[in-house]
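Dear colleague,

Thank you for sharing your sequence with our group. We've completed the structure prediction you requested, and as agreed, I am returning the results in plain text so they can be pasted directly into your records. Please verify that the sequence below matches your submission; if there's any discrepancy, let me know and we will rerun it promptly.
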Amino acid sequence: MKQRRISQPSALYSYNRSESFAEPLNRMPMPAKSLIEQDAELMSRVASGDQTACRVLAGAHLDSIYRMAFRILGDTGHAEDIAQEAFLRLWKAAGGWEAKAQVKTWLHRVTHNLCIDRLRKENRYSTSEVPDIEDPSKGPWTAREDQQMKDQITHALQELPPRQRIAVTLVHLEECGNKEAAEIMQISIEALESLLSRGRRKLRALLGPARELLGREAG
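Please find the predicted structure tokens below.
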């Protein structure tokens, strides 16, 4: 996979913060900062025009966002466009960023919405999917670190309805928790679990011998 480049927000911000904060002496040890707090600090630096902070965020999240878009859309060019747009929106949001969510979650939500817009433009998205018999298994899917198998899964994902494809991508490939994935998709956890169940079943049928990647189930 070729290395992707993301536009830095130097043209978006024309000011720099010059404040310096003296460290108090005999300071008591502070608890470790949460990921949300760490991301808020990075976004504050982005807002002040800090290019290093931009590179840190792009290095941490760009590949993940590109992979998510590619698995949903199945097109490298569209995936690159979506990743670029998602990060441009992140840079623009830096000035008003609030420590309420991780950058990862924010980017996934934006990428999800951008992908849905793209699918709708291509008439490839519908919220009405054919119902399926509910899968009783709630076991986790433990995908192996085998690139060939991942390629097969990525190809098979394109055969799923869009909402099932997105749910499987978020939970099983991007390693989002069910609660986080449901928030990104703006659906209930129960609805997410239903999408995952149907998506896993269809992937097992499509993958054939590789279906153990989806977890062993009765039958």
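Summary note from our side: The two ends are 38 Å apart (CA to CA).

Kind regards,
the structure core
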